[in-house]
Hints:
The chain is α/β, with parallel strands linked by helices. Helix content is about 40%, strand content about 20%. The protein is built from 8 helices and 7 strands.
Amino acid sequence: MSTAAPAKILLDSASAYYRASGRFAWHFARGKLRGDPAYRLILERGLLGGCSRLLDLGAGQGLLAAWLLAARSCHALGRAGAWPHQWPAPPLIESYTGIEINPKEVHRARRAFALAAAAQVRMLHADILEADYGRPDSIALLDVLHYNDFRAQERILGRARAALSPGGALLVRIGDAGGGHAFTLSKALDQGVALLRRGRWLPLHCRTLGNWEALLSTLGFSTRVVALSRGSGFTNTMLLGKAA
């Protein structure tokens, strides 16, 4: 079975959550989930395998929640074309907490998941520097850290480590500042996305991949690299950390 077939089923199922949130939310969800390889990779490689209590920092309109809930439904169908046999089972998310500073995105997410019954979905309007992280078993930080200055990055990651028990997972996507022209392109794209979502131009605070790994190690994470950008012209890279 081709792995291309379930991608459309997943896309339709995940983006359907946003029909109640308006045309912008629905079109943004479809465009992001179709074009961003991170979402497919999370399922294809089981990067959140075993996760049941997920904290999504800088969650936007909760796309990761929609994607994982849709994956759960597609896997449960148990029929040809619904789930690639070579993919591991998706995580069974019992609770999802998204923290987002943009009130418009929080509003869209709350409308999207108002009737979701498969998991407890909470969207909090708060600053990830100050909000209560609770006790998740996994934390996601996708394209978030570089919008914070270096001291704030260390604080956020330190708080994430304190919230996780040993063995807890940290999924981080960062840009590699050592990536040359590809990094410049990635940085321009991220600033464009920030302008679209927040209505203003934000400075980015970036590190080399080696510096990111060193920082995570210092804070008590063992990491492995999951490269996303090979052949794409960008330098975005996923790091999967485990709390020591």
